[in-house]
Design brief:
Strand content: 15-25%
Order of helices and strands: EEHEHEHEHEHEEEHHHHHHHEEH
Shape: globular
Number of strands: 11
Structural class: alpha/beta
Distance between the termini: 46 Å
Number of helices: 13
Largest sheet: 7 strands, mixed
Helix content: 40-55%
Radius of gyration: 20 Å
Bound molecules: nicotinamide-adenine-dinucleotide, glycine
Amino acid sequence: MRRIPVSLGARSYDIVIGDGIIGKLGDAVRDLGLGSKQMIVTSQTVWPLYGKTVKDSLTTSGFDVCITLTSDDEEAKSFETLTTIFDKLLENDFERNSGIVAVGGGVVGDIAGFAAATFMRGIRFVQVPTTLLAQVDSSIGGKTGVNHPNAKNLIGAFHQPRLVWTDVGTLSTIPERELRSGLAEVVKYSVIADPELFRLLSENVRSFSNISGDTLIETISRCCSIKARIVEQDEREEGIRSILNYGHTVGHALESLTSYAQYTHGEAIAIGMTAAARISLEIDATDRETVQLQENVIRVAGLPTRMHQPIDPVEIVQQLNKDKKRRAGRVRWVLPRRIGEVFLTEDVPPEVVLRVLQGMIAS
Ligand code: NAD
Ligand code: GLY
């Protein structure tokens, strides 16, 4: 079992990573001294797989537990789900020392976290991530929120969990495509900060779904450590935290232009990272080998490096200008210099972006 601290003063917490630990959550929550009432927020798919085990564990450890089930897709990150959670918290007389336990992927974590951030001006919450994406990324760092009908993740708050309890055993039931989606975030971490992780990934990515508990724990731990160190430096994304958005500039534009139906988050990010590396090459900030190394890993991971749905690159460039990560009206790019190092720039001419994207349409 690994324990990675996230040091944020009064908001510090641990990420605990192990294999087969989900049924031990109750004691860990009790050790934190959280209030006796806990609400589990989970999805309809995850509830029978892991939600019940979490409930039994919390109940055995003396907690009074109620459940809110969400739907299984991005639609769950809505004001409607939020209202359902608030209604249930009130019906069950939740108070300021009560808590929420999110059991599931990033969707459940984001909505449960935002409910915790806003109910009675903030109650405590615990993340039990059950997708690879949630285990390496979304459960850590305190970004919570819901989607506005016009834009994803637009309404949110920074609210750190009290504990992230990661059981890599839960990945055994994950659909292959969701696992690959999470792998894109692992590639992201390796390219932004960890050449050794990139090497580990290059060796294991082909058969990632078969890798053993220890290698999985090692891979996930490296990602979590990178994210923890970055969040510690810049909790509210005023500077360096932006590098975690590597691949997300073009990725978000693609997701949005295809109404979140064509690509998983990770697939869109994979295309976004490919575009970022090619842009970096175009402006002479990286070399061809770096671009090719990254493309190879992405391809072997079973992720796309090209846009299979022919989207007009002009529309993508227009969409970039609506991104909430713009600064003073300019698109902020995270570009690789080499494997393990990226830089931030607002100086990428739109014609370079257009040329790169035109070269990425699958024939
Ligand atoms: P998801 O939460 O939609 O989960 C994918 C699917 O897998 C769902 O149907 C879910 O019910 C199912 N599932 C979850 N765990 C399972 C398991 N162990 N076995 C079988 N099925 C399981 O998708 P995701 O990729 O985890 O999260 C995507 C969301 O995360 C997006 O909304 C994105 O905006 C958000 N996100 C947030 C942050 C952050 O920092 N807060 C970072 C990255 C992404
Ligand atoms: N997923 C990007 C971040 O947490 O900042």
